Amino acid sequence: MPVTLKEVAERAGVSRSAVSRTFTDGASVSVSMRRKVEKAARELGYSPNALASSLTTGRTKLIGLVSNNFHNPIFLEVFDLFTRGLQDRGLRPLLVNLSEEVDPTNPVRMLRQYSVDGVVVASSTLPPGFSKAFRDAGVPVVHSFGSLSSAPEVHVVGIDNQEAGRLAARTLLERGYTRVGFMGGPEFATSTQDRLAGFIAELSAHPTIRASYSFADAYSFDAGRKEMLRLLKEEPAQAYFGGDDVLSIGALSAIKDSGLDCPKDVGIIGLNDMEMARWNNINLTTIRQPIRQIVTSSIELMAATLEDRDRFPEARIFSCTVVERGTLRPALKA
Amino acid sequence: MPVTLKEVAERAGVSRSAVSRTFTDGASVSVSMRRKVEKAARELGYSPNALASSLTTGRTKLIGLVSNNFHNPIFLEVFDLFTRGLQDRGLRPLLVNLSEEVDPTNPVRMLRQYSVDGVVVASSTLPPGFSKAFRDAGVPVVHSFGSLSSAPEVHVVGIDNQEAGRLAARTLLERGYTRVGFMGGPEFATSTQDRLAGFIAELSAHPTIRASYSFADAYSFDAGRKEMLRLLKEEPAQAYFGGDDVLSIGALSAIKDSGLDCPKDVGIIGLNDMEMARWNNINLTTIRQPIRQIVTSSIELMAATLEDRDRFPEARIFSCTVVERGTLRPALKA
DNA sequence: AGATTATTTGCAACCGGTTGCAGAATATTT
DNA sequence: AAATATTCTGCAACCGGTTGCAAATAATCT
C-alpha cells in the first residue's frame, strides 16, 4: 500500500540511490535531480520508511520513555513536556509502563528489539538497577527524577532528594515546631529513602527536637489519609513533612475530618508543588521541584549523549524552593 | 554491537532460515534444531530485531497513541490503562502529543514513516478530521473519548456526550433548580459542543426553566475559576453543569472565594469523576465516565481491527452515571 | 580548447530478517 | 521392505532503504 523508494525512482526515471539521497540531508544531489525526484515523490505521496532506513543507518530516533509513576499528577506534565521536547528534536517516544515490573529483563529485551536510540527513565521510585540494566544493554540512558549517587553510573537529572529532606526539616524548625514527623511514601521508593535521610541528617544537629518517622503504603491520597488517621490516634507531631503532595493532601483530609485545623493543630509541608496544591480549597505549603527545567535538561543531555555515546555519566541537580501557602504556621520572627 | 541472526546461525552451524523459524511461532522446526538454535542464541544473548522483521512481515506492533489532552488528570489514568493494555497484547505505544497541532499532515506522515500498525486517538477535544486523516492513510483507527456521529467513519469508543448533557440537565431539574447554566469548556472542543447540545435539548421540553450558556477558555482550573467569577458578578444561575471536573473545581473555588456556599447558594455538577473529585475537601457531585471500560474496549476493538482490516466502523457507547456528592442540593421528594 | 578538479550519478552489496520452493530426512502405510 | 505421505531444512530472492566506489558530468583553470 505505501509508496516505496523504487516506485519514486521509476517514475522519476532515476536510480534508487538518487531518490535516497534527495531525502537524506548532507548527501550530494544536483538541483535538477532534486526537483525531478521531489516532483515524483509528491505526486506519489511518498515518504521514506524510517524503520527500513534505520537498518543501515543504525539510528531509529526512537527513545524509550519508561516510567512507573502513572498515578502522580505531576507526571502528566512530565509526559507532556517529554513528548513535546522529544518531538521537537525529531525523536519519537516509545512509552513503556513499568508498573508492577520488578525485573528489568523484559523491558530491556523489548527496547532492544525495537532498537531504541536511547532510554529516558522518568521515575522517582524505580531502583537504579533498571537504569543500569538499560545501560548494560548498550543504550544511552538518562534517569530523570532519579536518586543520585555520589558516583553516578548513568546520567541522572533531578533534585537532590536528601537536600529536599533537609530543606523540609529546616523549614519546620524555622517555624518553631519542636515535635516534627516524616510521613513518607512507600519505604522502598528511592525518593522516600533519600528524603528521609536528609530529614534525619538535618535534625541530628538539633537534639532538642523530637522527631518521628513513618511510611504510607503508596504515594496516593488514600494512603496519606490512612496513615495520618493512624498518626492522629496516638500522640501526633506538631507538623509533618509529607512524602509528596498527593500524600500530603490525603493527610490534610484526615486532619480536617478529625475535627482538627491545619495549620493550627497540625502543620503539613508537601513536595512537588503539583497543580492542585495551589487550588484554594487545598492551598498546600510545599517544596517546589522544577519539573520543566528537569525535563528540558534531561532531553538536552539525551541529545548530547546520542551525539557522543561515550559521554561520561553526569548528575545534574536542580534546587528546590519552599512555596509558602496555608498549611504551615508562619516563621518565627528573628 | 547487538547480536544478529547470522551470528547465531554460524554458531549453531545451521542456516539463517532455521534461526528465523525458531523465533517465529507457527513455523516448522524440529525439536533438535530448536534446541541447537536456542542454545546458541542464549549464549550470544540474541533477540530478534523487530524492526527488521517488520520489513517483510509488514507488521511492527507499533500503535500510535495520539492525544492532545495532557492537562486533564483523567488522562494520566487513560495513558496508564492504554500502555498496560497494549503491552499485554504485545503492542508498543508510540506516544504522539498533538497539543497545538492544527493540521493532521505532519502527524500522519510521521506515523506512516514509522509504519504503525494502528492508531488510537485518545482525545475528547480533537476534531474528527484527525481520525479521518489517519484512516485515509490506510491505518486502522480507534478514536477513544471521541464524539460520535450517526454515521461513524472510524471506530469511536466513549460516552454519548449529548446524552451526558441531557443527564446533567435532568439531574438539575430533579433537584428543583429553575435557573440553570451550562459552563462549558472551550467552544471549539467537540465534547463541549455535544454536551451543550444535549443540555439544551433536554431543557427545551421545560419552557419554564431559565437556562444560560457560556464557555471557559480551556478545560482548566483557572479557566473555570475565571469564568465563574465573571458569572457571579451578574445574576448567576442556581446551579451549573461544569464542562468537566477540573473546570468545576475551579468554579467551586470561585464560589467559595466570593463568600458564597456551594450547594446552598450555587450548585455544581461536573463530568468525569476524576480522582480528585472525591477528595473530601472538594467532594464534587459529578457525572462518571467509565474510563476503564472505554479503554479496555478500545484496545479490544483495535486488536480486532488489526486482525480484520476491513472491519466496518462502529461506535461503542458506554453510559454515564451521576455520582452523588456534596455540590448539588438533594433531589426533591417525589 | 584541453587538461584538471570537483560534483553527480548508478551499480551493487549490504542492513537484519522472512518466506516460497524444492530437495532431504523422517514417519507412516501397505 | 518398498512406496507414499509428512515434516524439516537450506537456497535464494525479497522487504525498503543506504552507501562505498568508480564511471560520467559539470565546473574551473591554463
Description:
Chains A, B: It comes from Tritonibacter scottomollicae. Chains A, B: Residues 3-57 form the HTH lacI-type domain. Chains A, B: One of its GO terms (molecular function) is DNA-binding transcription factor activity. Chains A, B: Pfam families: LacI, Peripla_BP_3. Chains A, B: This is LacI family transcriptional regulator. Two copies of one chain form a homodimer. Chain A has 334 residues and is an alpha/beta fold. The radius of gyration of chain A is 25 Å and the shape is elongated. The termini of chain A are far apart. In chain A, helix 1 crosses helix 3 and helix 5 runs parallel beside helix 12 (291-307). Chain A folds into three domains: 5-57, lambda repressor-like DNA-binding domains (434 Repressor (Amino-terminal Domain), Orthogonal Bundle), CATH 1.10.260; 62-159 and 290-319, 3-Layer(aba) Sandwich (Rossmann fold); 161-289, 3-Layer(aba) Sandwich (Rossmann fold). In chain A, the strands form two sheets. Chain A has a six-stranded parallel beta sheet with strand order 2-1-3-4-5-11, with helices on both faces. A six-stranded mixed beta sheet of chain A has the order 7-6-8-9-10-12, with helices on both faces. The first copy, chain A, has helices at residues 5-12, 16-23, 31-44, 50-57, 74-88, 105-113, 128-136, 161-174, 190-203, 221-233, 245-257, 291-307, and strands spanning 62-67, 92-97, 118-122, 141-144, 155-159, 179-184, 210-215, 239-242, 267-272, 286-288, 315-318, 321-323. Chain A contains twelve helices and twelve strands. In chain A, strand 6 (179-184), helix 9 (190-203) and strand 7 (210-215) form a beta-alpha-beta unit. Chains A and B meet through helix 4, helix 5, strand 2, helix 6 and helix 11 of A and helix 4, helix 5, strand 2, helix 6 and helix 11 of B. The first copy, chain A, binds a DNA duplex (30 and 30 nucleotides) through residues 4-6, 14-21, 23-24, 27-30, 33, 48-49, 51-58.
